[in-house]
Every structure is written in C-alpha cells, then in structure tokens.
Design brief:
Elements: H1 27-37, H2 39-50, H3 59-62, H4 80-88, E1 94-96, E2 99-101, H5 104-133, H6 144-156, H7 165-180, H8 184-201, H9 207-222, H10 226-243, H11 249-264, H12 271-281
Antiparallel strand pairs: 1-2
Protein name: Tetratricopeptide repeat protein
InterPro entries: TPR-like_helical_dom_sf
Pfam families: TPR_10
C-alpha cells in the first residue's frame, strides 16, 4: 500500500471500483453506474466503505478535501452536497444528523470490487482524513462526543499498522481521551492493539511504539492491573533511556508514571537505603 503523498503532483489516486462483480439486487448496478458517470462520488463511496459502519461526520471529508486526489480533491466544499446526493439517491449511502452511513452490503460490495491493495490505499486516505478531524484536546468533556464519533473510524483506519505518524498520534490521543472518560476497558483493548501492531511494524524502540506502551501501562493502571503495568513500564523506561535519553520529555513522563505505580504498590525504596541494606547482609 502506498501512503498518501503531501505533494499534489505525487499523490496516489483514490482507486475507483473495478468492473462490478455480481452482487444482490440493485447494489451492483448502482455501483457500476456510479463509477462510470460520477467518479468523485465513486471515490467518496470508496472512502466511506473502508471506514466503520457507524456514521461518518460530514466535516471529516469537507475540511480536508484539498488533501485528496482529483476528482474528489478538486470539489469545492459547497459542491460536496451534490456529490453526497449522487450516493443518497441510489441508496448507496444514507445521510443523517450524525453523518454519512453506508450499509454493510454496500461496503462489502465496494471492498470486493476494490481488492485488498486498492482498499488499502483508500484506507490510508481515509485515515488521513480522520486524523485531521480529531479534537485538539482530550481532557475537556466538551470534546468527548466528538472523540466518541470518530473512535470507530480511527480503529477502522488500521492505525495499529499505519505508516502515517498523524494517524498514530491521533490513535494514542484516543486512548488518553478514553482514560479521561473513565473507560479503562476499551482504552486497554485499543492500546494493546496499537502497541502490538507498532512493535511489529515500527520496532520495539520506536518512539511511537514506546508511547503506545506508556498508554497501555496507564490503561492497565486504570484497570487496577498494577503488576503488569509496572513490568511494562520498567521495559518502556529502559528503552526510552536507551533511545531518547534520560532528559527527554517522553522518558520523564514514563518514569513518573512508573514512580506512581511503585508508590501504589507499597513504596519505592530510596537508593541509599537499598545500599545500606545490602551492606548489612554482608558477613
């Protein structure tokens, strides 16, 4: 999969559907007609189909249209409604108060027509759009409904295996927002998936992998799993010191989190007291 390029001249096009394979009823015919007569709408349908089945807020698309390749990338925000109408009329997409929703049969048909490689390109663009739409804050309750609306699409964008640093950062902030909302269980599930995926794709010492490890540890702490959190933080701090150094902000934050866990587990002995005890044990 090629990641989206920032230079318009080198952008990978959002793939259109291939020749439609047989699908039930009018869905296949509608998709085939769309690809022939309205390529911009066909591209939008591809993006909707690789995201989650939950409604996608309309502004996820409109605020970043210029970052997409043409023809959809050349549509002015004021023209976007006509593109959506081309999907709503044949019932390929529903538009409601919470955004654009694509039914599972349509999503399956589009993904099948795209194939795995082209669907991956679409997913990369979709992830770029979602990452650009997340709130700037995670700890203010006013932002939580927005995080809740975008969370399934961040996950569907496969942030755990993404080459896009912005999408990875947005996924980490999603975990933090869940912790602020007191949702330790989903935070732990998402953080574990991110950490595992980033260890595989980026390596265990990459800063994003270690950031994911830190958020996973915080999720474990919130769930009361202090011993696994401590073990993970011991490894994370050691790797951060080795890769970024003792004074790096990311290292210092992780070390402070570990210190808090140690205190909750019964206190952290002072180094000088530990050495004194060692001397007392000598004959």
């Amino acid at each position: 999969m090629k990641a989206p390029q920032s230079d318009p001249a080198t952008r990978t096009a959002v793939p259109r559907q291939r020749d439609a394979e047989p699908v039930s009823g009018d869905i296949g015919a509608a998709i085939e007609v769309l690809g022939e007569h309205n390529p911009a709408a066909a591209q939008l349908l591809c993006l909707c189909s690789v995201l989650h089945a939950a409604p996608v807020p309309v502004d996820v698309f409109t605020r970043s249209l210029g970052r997409l390749p043409e023809p959809l990338g050349g549509i002015a925000p004021l023209q976007f409604n006509s593109v959506v109408a081309a999907l709503v009329e044949p019932r390929l997409v529903e538009r409601g108060g919470h955004g654009l929703r694509t039914s599972e049969p349509v999503r399956e048909a589009v993904r099948r027509d795209l194939g795995d490689e082209a669907a991956g390109v679409c997913r990369a663009y979709a992830g770029m759009l979602v990452a650009a739409a997340v709130p700037d804050v995670v700890d203010e309750p006013v932002s939580w409904p927005r995080w809740a609306a975008l969370a399934p699409h961040l996950i569907a964008s496969d942030a755990a295996h993404s080459t896009d640093p912005a999408l990875r950062a947005a996924a980490c902030r999603l975990v933090v927002s869940l912790l602020h909302r007191g949702k330790a269980r989903p935070a732990r599930t998402i953080a574990a998936e991110l950490h595992s995926g980033w260890r595989e794709t980026l390596g265990p010492d990459h800063p994003d992998t270690l950031r994911g490890a830190h958020e996973l540890a915080r999720s474990l702490i919130a769930a009361g799993a202090l011993l696994p959190a401590r073990k993970l933080l011991d490894d994370t701090v050691e790797r951060l010191v080795g890769s970024l150094g003792n004074s790096h902000p990311q290292t210092r934050v992780a070390a402070e989190t570990r210190r808090g866990v140690l205190l909750r587990m019964g206190g952290m002995p002072r180094p000088d007291a530990s050495r004194a005890a060692h001397r007392r044990r000598k004959p």
